[in-house]
Amino acid sequence: MVKLVSLYKRRPDVTVEAFHAHLLGLADAVQGAGGAVRYVQSHTLLQGYKRGELLFDGVSEWTFDTPEAARDARRNAVDVPLADPVRTVHMLVDVHVVKPGAVPAGAVKNIEFVNRRPGMALEPFRHYWREVHGPIGAKISTILRYEQNHLHAGEYADDAVPLFDGLAITWFASTAEMRRGAGTPEYEVTRADEVNFLPDGHLPIIITREVVDTGAA
User: If you ran DSSP here, which 8-state letter would residue 203 be given?
Assistant: First the structure.
C-alpha cells in the first residue's frame, strides 16, 4: 500500500478553526485526485494548542495502488491557499500495518514524526522499526490500530535529505485512553527500546481526529 501524505501548517494570519474549515471545504475537490482509492483528512485537536503552536494543523492522506500514481498526484497537488507553502510537506510512504483494528467514530489519531538515530543507516533503521520495535509497541493494549508509514525509497534519490524518515500513526478511543496507555508497563518497555533506533528524547507529535474518510482501513 502506498500513500501520499500532505502535512499542512496554516499561514500566521489564519486561526486554527478557520484553517480547519478551509481544509474541510477542499475535501470534495481533492479526495479523488489522481485516481486515489481512499482519501482521509485529519485535523488537530484544539486543546493541543494550550502549550503553544503545533508542528502541523492538518493532514491529508491519499492511498494509491502504485508509487507512480502517488508521484503523479503529488506533482498535481491541489493548492491549499490558507496553508503556509514553505511549511507544507508532501511525503510518499509505504504503509506497514503493525496492529490492524477497527477505528470507531470519534477516535483520536496520534501522528509521530519519525527520524532515525544519528549515524544509523537507513535499511537497519527500517528493519528495526518494523520487525523489532513495531511488535513491542503493538502490545500497548489501548492502541486500537498501529501503522508505520516508511518514507518511500525513491524519496532519498540524489542524496536528498528528507525532513522525516516516516510517520508512526496510532489510534485510540479517546485522549484519556491514550494517556492510560502511557501509564502501562508495555509503554515503558516501548520507550526504553527507542534508544536503539531513534534520536534521544521525544519525537514531535500531533494528536488529530479524522474528519473525512472515503474508504475502509
Answer: P
How far is residue 148's CA from residue 111's CA, in Å, rounded to a whole number? 10
Tens of pLDDT, residue by residue over 16-48, are 999 999 999 998 887 766 788 999 999 999 999
Greatest extent of the chain over all pairs of C-alpha atoms, in Å: 46
Collect all residues with Cβ–Cβ distance below 8 Å to 181 and sequence separation of at least 6.
140, 141, 142, 143, 172, 187
**3-class secondary structure per residue, 5-70:** EEEECECCCCCHHHHHHHHHHCHHHHCCHHHCCEEEEEEECHHHHHHCCCCCCEEEEEEECCHHHH
Contact 22, 81 (CB under 8 A): yes
88 backbone φψ class: left, alpha, beta (φ>0; ψ -120 to 50): beta
- In angstroms, rounded to a whole number, what is the distance separating the alpha carbons of residues 120 and 86? 28
Q: Which three cell numbers stand for residue 163?
A: 525532513
Contact predicate 195/120, CB 8 Å: no
CB 176 within 8 A of CB 113: no
- Residues 180, 177: Cα–Cα separation, whole Å: 5
Whole-prediction pTM: 0.95
